[in-house]
Amino acid sequence: MFSDERHDAFCVFCGAEPNTREHVASRILLDDPLPDDVPVVFSCHACNNSFSQDEEYLACFIDCVISGTTDPAIVQRTKVRASLRHTPALATKIASARREDETGAIVWKPEDNRVRNVVVKLARGHAAHQYSEPHLQEPERVLIVPLIVMSPEQREAFEHIPESPGWPEIGTRAFLNTFVTGKKSYSAEGGWEVLQRGRYRYAVAQPGEIVVRIVLSEFLGCEVTW
Ligand SMILES: [Zn+2]
Hints:
Layout: E1 20-23, E2 40-43, H1 45-50, H2 52-67, H3 78-86, H4 88-95, E3 98-100, E4 106-108, H5 112-131, E5 141-146, H6 152-159, H7 173-179, E6 187-189, E7 192-196, E8 200-205, E9 211-216, E10 220-225
Antiparallel strand pairs: 1-2, 3-4, 5-10, 6-7, 7-8, 8-9, 9-10
Helix pairs in contact: 2-3, 2-5, 3-4
Bound molecules: zinc ion.
């Protein structure tokens, strides 16, 4: 069978020599039991470690917003409950992000740089896994917006995954996905890979530029373009 070893040679996040592997999505963003075939990419230890606090922050932030509270007894996800209990400072920090806007509506204001850090990392992982090439340069565009904030037109455009114009290069994951079946246990729906239903789905397309879309907890819509 075709195998693609090209991305053995680099950490997909920084280009350094890899010495470990990283799940994409990160475990904190998925519930246990983990899906069987979470994509795995090569990484260096420094990158592997550097994202974990921001990933925990984002996972907790999303679940707190969805649950409307930072109370570990009430939030929905088991892993988030454990994180908030284990790190009260994190719960306090997230609680301080909850405020009223001018109209009296409750809004949650995340630390944008931390959210972006995680989203770009995930997108780099998916793009490298799909195309077996690093995408180390800064993305051209990063959009991060809750699905409920999108207009119906924006939502439709976001959910529609564009067709890639050509045939993928032989040996890349895109090629394998197209021509080799039966490997993945998770499902592809309308171009979306549903890694864990209700928790994590993503899509990678190359309608010219490379576009990676990710939906976290059916709440946060993300798009990263190179
Ligand atoms: Zn690295």
